[in-house]
Every structure is written in structure tokens, then in C-alpha cells.
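Morning!

This is the sequence you dropped in the shared folder:
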Amino acid sequence: MSRDFRLDRAPIDALKYEIAQEKAVALGRMGRALEKALATLREFDAAHPRSAAPASAQPARRVLVTEAGYALWMLVVQREACGLRDSHALMRDYGVPGEVQQCMGAAPATATRDVT
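The structure's back. C-alpha cells below.
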């Protein structure tokens, strides 16, 4: 759509444009939140290889997986609100691990939900 809204245009056109902008901004914000959550999980895994990780590291990792699952859920919901129904490419492009996909949407009451 053009940014040139003249008086001869219907006000609904301006509203539709604003809604489309808000959807795009929210989609980008959710995508960045997922990227951040996945990067944090990958950094944790690099610092604590599973074969050598102490048992005390497992609860912390589980929280990171759950937070990434919540971020994934938020992005999938936003994409669906934008009409993007197929998430297979999303999972592949972001490199979402299966365990994150399995807990998508789950979030403990104490989890931080920072999507900014």
C-alpha cells in the first residue's frame, strides 16, 4: 500500500495500513525474542556439554528450553494471526530443536516472558 493517504481515500485504508504495520512490528519482535531464546539455549549447551554436564545444570537447561518453547509459541501465534499457517519453514529457518517444539507454549509461572 502507498503511504500517500489523501483526503479522497477512505479512512479505512489508513486504518488497514496501520494494522498491517503493527502486525509486521509484532512479528519482528516475536522473531527476535525466539532468536534470543534459542541463542541463550545454544550458549548454555556449548558451555555445558550434555555428556559432561553436572546434574545440577539440568534444571537451568530445562528453564531455557521452556522459555524458548514459549517464545516459539508466541511467534507461531503471531504468524497465524498474519495468515501464515505453515510453520515447517519457520522451524527449519530458525533451527528450532525438537525438544523446544515439543514444549511449545508451555511456560512455568516463574518464567520470564520478555518479548521486547
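Headline: The chain has a mean pLDDT of 85.

More detail when I'm at my desk.
O.
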